[in-house]
Amino acid sequence: MMLAFYQAIQSFHNPSMDAFFILLSFLGSEPTYILLIAVLFWNVDKRFGFRLAVLFLISMAFNGFLKGFFHTQRPIGQPGIRSIYLSSATGNSFPSGHSQGAATFYSYLWLRWRRQKRWLGIGFLMIVGIGFSRLYLGVHWPGDILGGFLFGAIMVLGFQRLDETLFKLPFSLSTKLLLSIALPLLLLLVYHTREGWQMVGFVIGFTSGYFLEDSLLDYRERTRFAPSLYKTLVGLTLLGLWVWLWHPLTQHYLWVYLPVLTLGGLWTSFGAPYLFRRLGWEGPLQEKGATATRIAGRTDQT
After folding, report:
1. Which residues contact 30 (CB under 8 A, 6 or more apart)?
2. What are the CA-CA distances from residue 19 to residues 13, 84, 135, 180 (Å)?
3. Measured between alpha carbons, how far is residue 55 from residues 48, 108, 207, 224, 300 in Å?
C-alpha cells in the first residue's frame, strides 16, 4: 500500500517538476529561514524577529532529539521508490525536519499577522508544499511529514507560554548575553548536524547582537519601500559574502560554522542596523512621548 502511494505521487515526475520540488524543499532549509529572519528584523519587527529565531532554534533542536530517539530509516533505497536531492536527507527520518521547520516558522508568522488572511494562505501553501516536496523527492515517509507538522504546531503553542514568562523577566544585560551563548550551545548536543552548527552559531550572534542593539542602539526598523530595499540588498549581500568566504573551510570542518555564523548573526542584529543608521536608512522617529517612553524602558524588554 505504501509503495502504491509513492508510485502515485511520483508517477508524474519530469525534470521540470524535479527542479520545482527541489527548490521548494530548499526553501524549507535552515539557510533560507536565516535570510527571512534577517529581512524581518531589518524591515518589519525586530522583537518578533528575535522571538522567531529563538523559537526556530528550539524547534529544530527538538527535532534533532526526536530523530535520535525514534531512529527510523528513510525510504531511500526502497524498491519502487525514486529518491533524489539526497544532500538534503541527512540523519534519521522521523519526524521530518523540513516539515517541522515549515510548521514552526509559518505558523508563528500567521499568529503575528492573523488578521491578514493572505498570511494564512501563504503559510498554509508553504507548509503543505514543503511537506509534499519531501514525499515527491522520496526522502521521507508520510508519517514523517505528519509528525513534523504536529511537533511544529506543539512547539509554537508551547513557545507562546514561554514568551509570556521568560522574555519578560528583568535580566541584566550581562545575564542576557551569557544565556545567549550558553543555551544555544547546550542545544547543539542534540542538534549537531551541518544545519545545527549553522543555526546555533547564527542564534548565538543574533540574540547577543539583539540585546546589545536594544540597550545601545534602539534601531527603528520600519521604513518606506526604497530604504527597505536598500537594507535588504546590502544586508543580505554582505552576509552572503561573509559566509561564502569561509565556504571551502566549512565543507571540511563543520565546527567552523559556529564562529562564522555567530559573526553573521551579530552582523544581522547589530552591525547592519548600525550601518543602516549611518547611511540614513533607518525608520522615522516615533512621537516624542512614545519615543521617550521606549528609550527609557528598552533595556528590560525583549
Report:
1. 60, 101, 195, 198, 199
2. 10, 10, 14, 38
3. 10, 9, 12, 28, 20
Residues of the chain above pLDDT 90, percent: 67
d(CA 132, CA 7): 14
For residue 1, the tally of other CB atoms under 10 A from its CB is: 4
pTM of the model: 0.89
Alpha-carbon gap, residue 206 to 200, rounded angstroms? 10
User: Is the distance from CB of 149 to CB of 99 less than 8 angstroms?
Assistant: yes
pLDDT band at 286 (very low <50, low <70, confident <90, very high): low
Are the C-beta atoms of 231 and 283 separated by less than 8 Å? Answer: no
Task: Provide the 10 A C-beta neighbour count for residue 42.
Answer: 26
Size (the chain), residues: 302
Q: Is 162 exposed, middle or buried (0-12, 13-18, 19+ CB in 10 A)?
A: middle
The 10s digit of each residue's pLDDT in 32-77 is 999 999 999 999 999 999 999 999 999 999 999 999 999 999 988 8
Q: From the CB of residue 145, how many other CB atoms can be counted at a distance below 10 Å?
A: 26
Q: What is the mean pLDDT of the chain?
A: 88
